[in-house]
Amino acid sequence: MAPRFVFATAVALFMGMLTSTTLAALPPDVKKELTELAKELKGIAGLIKKKEVDQAKEIISKTEERLKVLAIAEDEKDRSYASFKTALEKAKNLIPVSFEHEVAPILQANCLRCHGEEQASAMLRLDTYNMIARGGRSGVPVVPRVPQRSGLVLRMVAENDQQRMPRGGAKLPDSEIFTIARWIEQGAIFDGTDQNAPIGDSTVIKKPPVEVVMADGSETISFTKDIAPWLVNICMGCHSGDNPRGKFGFTTFEQLLQGGPTGTTIVPGKPDESYIVDLVLRQEPLKMPAGQAQLKQSQALALEKWIQEGAHFDGKDSKAPLRDIVPTEEAMEAAKLASMSDAEFAERRITQAAELWKRVSPKTEGAAVTTANFYLYGSVSEDRLKELGDAAESQLAGLATQYTLPGGEQAFRGRLVVFVTAERFDYEEFNTVLMIRRTPKAISGHSVITASFETAYIALHDVGDAESEDSLSVTQLMRSLIAQSYLTRDGATLPDWMKQGFGLLEAGLPPGSAYVKAIPKRAATAVSTIDDAGKLFNDGTMAPEEVSDVGYLLVKFLLSQGGPDRFQQLVGELRSNPDAGRAVQQVYGTAPTALGQLFLRSGGK
Q1: What is the fold, at CATH topology level, of the domain defined by 334-491?
Q2: pTM for the predicted model, two decimal places
Q3: Cβ contacts of residue 59 below 8 Å, gap of 6+?
């Protein structure tokens, strides 16, 4: 069956050429040769039916080579030439289009970013033949033998930039679109070996399996400790991803042994035959690693020795990413902190407090007071710090009674640092210098707890002992921040409304205080512009100065819906699932929007 979609386009081009140009006649001998070549091309259809595709391709190739030799001038390309070209195009279009060799590379290069396994826009995946056949939200993209009705082609030729695919890119070359159209018109046949395999998989040269020899304890060099760390941190930057340097990419131990195009990157037991040893140890100058990174000679010698000993693997899974067996800097720091004694951790916290204060207020000498669970430091008097220290210990004891800690666990390992500034400017410097953010006028304190308790402090301005409808007293402010720190003492990232709302609830505010009475009015203003009540549970919905008021009412409301146990369940869910809406639905069994609307109707009570 002739490929009408593509063939009609070719005919239109030639007819346009003939009607717009005054042509000279072809020489008789050339015209005769074209006629003979056209006759030979007619046999292509029969060869294709007999599946003698290679012979058909050879005839077409010879015909095209002969046409180049004839070098027909533009003004000689008359109707007989156009007729010959039509026959040639028709014969070429009869050649089966290979899905794996011709179509798959086009789809891989242009479509899989949006229609692959990781992201399937419009629920359409094009990464396997079966997924293409399954289709997506708009139906099946390929209708065999009918490219005019195949969405895959129609979206590629769309005039509208918003509708044309690939989205956001230039229109594909006509030759590539014609290739896909011809493949569809020929029946959209799959010529690979596995319809569930990644497209083009059958064309990939498969490397032979490698033999991984596990370490037996006799080795003097450990792969995981002596080799893998610098391979991951120095080499994998160039030798991973879609276009690895030298076409040698590795992310697992097995891939490392498989080697690159030379196949001799690592030859277990034979460092002299291992190309990687030449690159990092013997060449002059050394070729690897490229760029600014440098290996120590001891590292290169360790590699040579490891290969000499048989290139044994002392990890758990040779197919797992090497990155997983090499601890990150964060993991190494966490391990270091975990190994510290309580005394060492406490000393670290004191040193850290002095360093942070110096960055914030280098010209002000700070006073310090130590209690069982807190290290208070700041520009107020020592007596003031002692007063606040007593209040802090009392607050912590109450929290530990109501929200029980696991047996023997210390609330704040190494103590929680409490920075107290006499001047508001110094407090604002904590935000400017350490947090790189502005300080709204309504904010006079904040808490910082990082994973593994590496950094743990609260910072506040001594606003005085008087409470008003717009401001907490300094003790109430500190109690609020301690409660926030208690809630996030494991370094978990919880929504600001939850942290600050919980903090206010545990700040020791009298029920009839001026500040508490003013909260509903401020909160009502904050939520008045929210178009979806479900967004109340998302971080960033409210401005920083609005969060604590709305959070206070929201936490109070959630406690009324299931008590402290269910609230603690929500906290636990959010520690492992940062999607607040999903966590709320999981714990309270109600969609976030519905629960948010119920909260708004309750007036925060």
Answers
A1: Glutaredoxin (3.40.30)
A2: 0.54
A3: 40, 41, 43, 44, 47, 91
